[in-house]
Design a protein that fits this description.
301 residues; Farnesyl Diphosphate Synthase; mainly alpha; two-stranded antiparallel ribbon; 69% helix; homodimer
Chain lengths: 301, 301
């Protein structure tokens, strides 16, 4: 399939709708008053969002010729892990944010206890989906490897570890290597997981191609975060759907605060070019992944 | 193996030491200042505790003739899920407890953000162990079923759901059926998981025996909680290692508060007798499970 910019946009729309339908199927129905755990889970997950991670799962599957229904579960699981991490990161004891995806954060809409539990239950739901979805690959070994990747990359040596580094870094001076280490964990690990879960859905992938995809994923995981830091400075709260300037207000180290805005933009472009280079062993079937890399560094929200 | 009371006590000691050694292997090493995520995880998990859930995993494996090293991973995973739930339940937004296992709660020892993240990372670690441990059963289908059980029974329809019911019930009048529903989720589901994970470690178990074990697990899961409620009234803080009378002080419905102390004791005994009945298709190989049922309703901490 030859891809151009309009087709890419239409595919992104398709993937967003596809994962929203899958998420709706996996989320528990609203519960009965006064308990609102299920409502809080639904509120956080179904909030309007870019669905970057599911889109990456679908795009990788598409590049590898995998039937998309084989990866609906993986796409849902990564979005659910992302949603749980946002709920917990927004809590008063963490980033203390009031706004997320253009709406009150989960603990503002419900309460802190419900938000904590909703995050906990969402993490469990992600693993339930990977282990339970009958449409995913029937290869149990591969499914078990997906559980392993998802748990490793979201745990203390991945996303949760990155958030701990982030909290400890508030008010500190980091050098660029330390900042990258933080982001490789906090954001990069889960983005890497997206590509790996899709790759594990086929047994026809050579080791060389698997590694090329992983290199690509690591590079765009970092470029995504560089662009996030740039947008925190240059965009506005309505466009972002979260509080603009929140990182600098909180005295958090960011790429612009350490190397400046201009060098940050160069950094993002360099990562994008390296990501394209990593995909060089693929033909035009991987064009969708090339478009995603460009999207990550050109997006305005 | 013929079991009597002294041998049972010695086995319980062995199992406690065995799981502590396994937990030590699985937990990440302490991290570098100022980050204390790994320390917080270690502090919460390695705190002195009864290790009820791992003991139940080992005892079930023993009753089924399964090599204990096949279930070290499952035993570690259930204890880690339990530890994460205690960290989060103790948070100021939830039960706001200062004392756990005779020591300051995780958020008192460290801080709230670290406690939230430590709980999150521990949940991920539990799934990592089940998917990764090379000593567990090589049957990938069975391992995937373990992930499914553990995620289902710890999520919004299990443990996390039970905690949400619990929080919504504070200051409310529940009837005995509602109280049981809460506990079947909050405590019972994870205890049931212990028996199921051990049972999934062998492919030689008949459907009838599997169901008998599940019935047993449901009964002792409830009797354990009835006894917990009794001890909250009759024991003291030093013996419990957590604040005595905390439930009644918080106006939480408990078995003694609804049906009285005497009827609660009768209820615990009745559940114990029913648990023995559920095991009637097993011979003396299941004596260790019979002793566990007795221990659950006779324990003083």
């Amino acid at each position: 399939m030859k891809i151009d910019a309009p087709l890419f946009e239409s595919l992104v729309d398709d993937y967003q709708q596809r994962v929203d339908a899958a998420l709706e199927r996996w989320l528990p129905p609203p519960d009965v008053n006064p308990i609102c755990l299920h409502q809080a889970m639904r509120y956080a997950v179904l909030a309007p969002g870019k669905r970057v991670r599911p889109i990456l799962v679908y795009a990788t599957a598409s590049a590898l010729g995998i039937d998309l229904k084989r990866v609906d579960g993986a796409a849902s699981a990564v979005e659910i892990i992302h949603a749980y991490s946002l709920i917990h990161d927004d809590l008063p004891a963490m980033d203390d944010d009031d706004l997320r995806r253009g709406r009150p954060t989960c603990h503002r809409k419900f309460d802190e206890a419900t938000a904590i539990l909703a995050g906990d239950a969402l993490q469990a739901l992600a693993f339930y989906i990977i282990s339970h979805d009958p449409q995913m690959t029937p290869d149990a070994e591969a499914r078990l490897q997906m559980v392993e990747k998802l748990s490793l990359f979201s745990g203390s040596r991945g996303m949760a570890g990155g958030q701990a580094i982030d909290l400890a870094a508030v008010g500190k001076t980091l050098n660029i290597a330390e900042l990258e280490t933080m982001h490789i964990h906090k954001t990069g690990a889960l983005i890497r997981t997206c590509v790996q879960l899709a790759a594990l859905s086929t047994n026809k992938l050579s080791q060389q191609r698997h590694q090329a995809l992983d290199s690509y994923a690591k590079l765009i995981g970092l470029s995504f975060q560089v662009q996030d830091d740039i947008l925190d400075v240059t965009s506005d709260t309505v466009t972002l759907g979260k509080t603009q300037g929140a990182d600098s207000a909180r005295n958090k180290p960011t790429f612009p605060s350490i190397i400046g805005l201009h060098a940050s933009r160069e950094k993002a472009q360099e990562l994008h070019q390296n990501a394209l280079q990593a995909l060089s062993i693929f033909g035009e079937e991987a064009d969708i992944l090339r478009y995603i890399s460009a999207w990550f560094v050109e997006r305005s929200n």
